[in-house]
Amino acid sequence: MKKMASLLLFSLLFLLVLTDSGHAATASPQTKIILDGHELVLPSDVEVVNINKNVMIPIRVVAENLKFKVKWDQKKQNVSIEQNNKAISLHVGRTEAYGQNGKVTLNTAPQLIKNTVVVPLRFVSEEMGLSVSWNNKDKIVGLTSAAVPSVEPAPSPPPVVSGPGQSTVWSKVNDISFGNHQLVVSIDHEVTPRITRLSNPDRIVVDLPDTTFGDMAPGMKQGTMGKLDVSGIPNVTEVRYSLFTNDPAQVRVVMELNNLSDVQVNVQYVSGKLIVDLAVAGIIGIPVPPAQQDNGKSIIVIDPGHGGKDPGTIGISKTQEKNFTLPLALKVQALLSQEPDIEVVMTRETDVYPTRPERVQLANTLNADVFVSIHGNSVEASPQISGTETFYYKRSSSKALADIMHRHLVEVLGFKDRGVKNGNLEVLRDTTMPAVLLEIGFLSNLAEEQAMLSETVQDKAAQAIVDAIKEFLHQPS
Ligand SMILES: [Zn+2]
Q: Distance from the CA of 269 to the CA of which of 93, 102, 114, 334 falls in 20 to 30 A?
């Protein structure tokens, strides 16, 4: 479960930021790795790279900083990493690796680049128990180990920003709120937060360097403290904030939890707000990826219906709806990712079950331009029923999208035209952008089920969905 969650996290997390595929590319020459608040010194010409959409990081420098023993066998091209009773083994060029719980298959094999072995970030975090954040603006990979210091650490001194004729200007926090397992800090300039996990009591400390309070508590003095009302929020006992230091200014927010063990911390900025998302494995299934702002691209959220424990409807040959929606949605994703003006974000890319509120929240937090939920229909008792239906809810923008989508689908699929319908469906009702739910065809109808499961028909349907999205986006508004 936890693995699934983090799998999803990484696929989402880097979907928006890294678009090269098929060959190694430098994620960014300035990409930094911050481990537990300290920037790792990377050997010269060692870089974070992006291979087949996987962020690959140099393993040795990370492992050694975590006090793991790293052994390199040149002949066997094998890296082994040990700490206490934990052992991990990887081979350059092989996707098969050994983690703490036995054999694992990597998405991308470790590679030797300029004498440094790079491995998928996902593997590092899962096997070494690190939580990961990505600051897209500053190109920083943040790694937080579960290692627990006995006291809250003193803040490390920030870089000196004042120079001749220049006075220091701190970033200002104008609001802090907590809800939906998210800490939301409105801040006038982006800063890179330092996140620390501590125990006794379990808590997450968010330090904002070079930051003071603005509107919300203008005269806040060092050492005084404010608290948010978190009564009734499960697992959260207290959220407090303070001006931790005065000069350099530093704001500290502490979230006290009953249990930190399953919590993954994900940090991002969305429209001037720092969002620290506490993704509890199995509870909050979709960490929101970092938004790319002002790049002029339309954000399209594709939602393959059901998944994981929720099979959806069952077809005439016992096909589970979730196994129809995912492959089709992945085809849509593949097509959309080739569009230069579109960022595609998936609510799931594997067989997992995000709840409907989570799917909605993802689209709303991203302020997506279009939301498309993909489903298959079924009426078990009436296998003769067939055809395509497209749903929207109330909004005229959703209706416009539904009309276009339906026309394209009916045209290429040739299934019976069952029409565009207004439906009070949660993912349509609670999303805030043009949103449609597609019932592509009836899995309870033998002919339609066979068609829906075929590659050719899925390719056609995927192309129709993409064509419809593009037509909708290019409409005069
Ligand atoms: Zn469905």
A: 334
